[in-house]
């Protein structure tokens, strides 16, 4: 029985201690305290929810200020330092709130700029008290001691360097989203880029251009009279203009969501064979590359004359075209046109 009373008494004592701890945190000891600022921030956000127009923004603005002030006050009463530095953990938390307040928006509270400026703002918040001496009622500016200046400079400079590397991460990530064909390149000699994923063998966007262009070219050639096809193929300037125009249309249609659409171009190459022609469709990358001469993709189509029967049962010669199933990747500049090559040899 005594044991039961002791257990019950212990539970009540624990509950009393828990209540006292919660009350100490939630109930401000005086009006001028960090709890007051936190409550004011909560009150401001509740009121702003029911407000409209610019009044809502003004109330929310003060709600952020109260939250930042209350958090900074609470986390600096008994500061816990970041290991290896004199930066309080409270400065890191306050810096995050300031960064969200300054660079966030209603759609995305945490934006890339929020993360980028977070370390630098935290370092500046840590450094500000070093330039102030006195208490809350009697404070004045001062110049830190030489030994303090050194650690302040190191802390701020290191935080700015960290911000630069975070910004570099977002820049590279954005590049690979807008210019995915860069991932097909190799950066083995780079001092700042380390490949963490398997390198793509063929840039997908370059292959898509040729895949979409091929059926259009096939439709214009297949089953047409051989004489018309030869007129379409032999004048090099005519076919080049036609294929370039078709290719530009497919690029704008299929790569509309990528900035790299301006860095691709399409060109044809026509060569004679014993039985007909070889039409090479090239998608050429004009963007940055580890190879000074860049690279290009090629899809070859073989065009040959075949005998066919017309509607009037007359034998005519039409064109038959067969293209490679996939595209091939080549490093270096694309081969010159037949006319250009002859001009160089002369």
Describe the structure.
There is one protein chain. With 346 residues, the chain is an alpha+beta fold. The protein has 10 helices and 7 strands. It has helices spanning 2-26, 34-50, 53-77, 89-103, 112-127, 146-178, 204-221, 226-233, 236-254, 338-345; strands at 132-134, 139-141, 264-272, 277-285, 295-309, 315-323, 328-331. The strands form 2 sheets. Strands 3, 4, 5, 6 and 7 form a 5-stranded antiparallel β-sheet that branches. Strands 1-2 form a two-stranded antiparallel sheet. α3 (53-77) runs antiparallel to α4 and α7 packs across α9. The radius of gyration is 35 Å and the shape is elongated.
Which characteristics define this entry?
346 residues, alpha+beta, two-stranded antiparallel sheet
H-E order: HHHHHEEHHHHEEEEEH
Record field, number of beta strands: 7
Q: Determine the number of helices (DSSP H or I, runs of at least 4 residues).
A: 10
Distance between the termini: 115 Å
- Label the structural class: alpha+beta
Query: What overall geometry do the principal axes of the alpha carbons give?
Result: elongated
> Strand content of the residues, in percent?
15-25%
Q: Major β-sheet, in short?
A: 5 strands, antiparallel
Radius of gyration: 35 Å
- Helix residue percentage: 40-55%
């Amino acid at each position: 029985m005594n044991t039961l009373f002791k257990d019950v008494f212990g539970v009540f004592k624990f509950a009393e201690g828990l209540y006292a701890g919660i009350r100490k945190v939630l109930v401000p000891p005086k009006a001028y305290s960090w709890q007051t600022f936190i409550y004011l921030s909560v009150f401001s956000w509740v009121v702003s929810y029911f407000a409209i127009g610019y009044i809502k923004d003004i109330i929310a603005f003060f709600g952020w200020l109260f939250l930042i002030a209350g958090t900074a006050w609470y986390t600096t009463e008994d500061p816990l330092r970041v290991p290896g530095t004199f930066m309080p953990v409270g400065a890191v938390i306050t810096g995050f709130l300031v960064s969200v307040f300054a660079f966030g928006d209603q759609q995305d509270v945490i934006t890339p700029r929020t993360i980028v400026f977070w370390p630098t703002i935290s370092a500046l918040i840590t450094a500000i008290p070093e330039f102030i001496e006195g208490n809350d009622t009697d404070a004045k500016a001062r110049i830190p001691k030489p030994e303090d200046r050194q650690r302040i400079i190191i802390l701020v400079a290191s935080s700015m360097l960290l911000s630069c590397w975070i910004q570099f991460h977002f820049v590279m990530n954005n590049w690979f989203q807008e210019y995915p064909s860069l991932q097909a390149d190799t950066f083995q000699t780079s001092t700042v880029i380390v490949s963490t994923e398997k390198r793509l063998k063929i840039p997908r966007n370059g292959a898509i251009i040729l895949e979409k262009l091929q059926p259009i070219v096939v439709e214009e050639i297949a089953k047409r009279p051989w004489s018309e096809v030869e007129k379409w193929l032999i004048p090099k300037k005519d076919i080049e203009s036609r294929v370039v125009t078709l290719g530009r249309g497919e690029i704008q249609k299929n790569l509309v969501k990528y900035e790299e659409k301006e860095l691709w171009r399409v060109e044809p190459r026509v060569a004679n064979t014993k039985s007909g022609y070889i039409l090479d469709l090239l998608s050429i990358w004009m963007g940055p590359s580890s190879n000074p001469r860049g690279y290009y993709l090629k899809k070859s189509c073989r065009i040959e004359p075949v005998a066919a029967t017309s509607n009037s049962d007359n034998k005519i010669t039409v064109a038959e075209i067969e293209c490679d199933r996939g595209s091939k990747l080549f490093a270096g500049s694309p081969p010159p046109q037949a006319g250009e090559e002859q001009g160089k040899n002369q």
